[in-house]
Design a protein that fits this description.
Radius of gyration: 26 Å
Keywords: Plasmid
Structural class: mainly alpha
Shape: elongated
Helix content: 40-55%
Number of helices: 8
Protein name: Transposase
Largest sheet: none
GO molecular function: ATP binding
Strand content: under 5%
Pfam family, one: HTH_28
Distance between the termini: 54 Å
Number of strands: 0
Number of domains: 2
Length: about 130
């Protein structure tokens, strides 16, 4: 995937074109492709500046949202829930195999949650027979 070039560079290309250079000359002077110079000039005319399209974002929440109805029904039936984990939130991406999915899940779980974090060694493991 192509990287996003800086806003300063895009604004510089547009300013050079506004200053009288052709798109080709402005592109050559600032080291960008002619097609980028043309596109940025068009965006500047339409929006007042060469805006960038949003990149990235959450493309995985559909996996969680597909289960949203089930989760909401479960919460409605059960009322309050207590979820426990022996892993920190930072490790959930490893557990689920995808940090984006884990972050989306945590975002939904923790939205109205009260988090109680208990540090230290479990006492039950000390009393368990070997």
């Amino acid at each position: 995937m192509a990287r996003t070039l800086s806003r300063d560079l895009r604004d510089g290309v547009v300013a050079a074109i506004d200053g009288g250079l052709s798109c080709r000359a402005a592109a050559a002077r600032l080291g960008v492709s002619v097609s980028s110079a043309i596109r940025w000039r068009q965006l500047a005319l339409e929006h007042g500046r060469a805006v960038v399209k949003p990149r990235g974002g959450d493309r995985h929440s559909g996996k969680i949202e597909a289960q949203g109805g089930f989760i909401r029904e479960l919460i409605a039936e059960q009322g309050a829930m207590i979820l426990t984990s022996n892993r920190g939130f930072a490790e959930w991406g490893e557990v689920f195999g995808d940090p984006v999915v884990a972050n989306a899940l945590l975002d939904r779980l923790l939205h109205h949650a009260v988090v109680v974090q208990i540090e230290g060694q479990a006492t039950a493991s000390d009393s368990m027979p070997n």
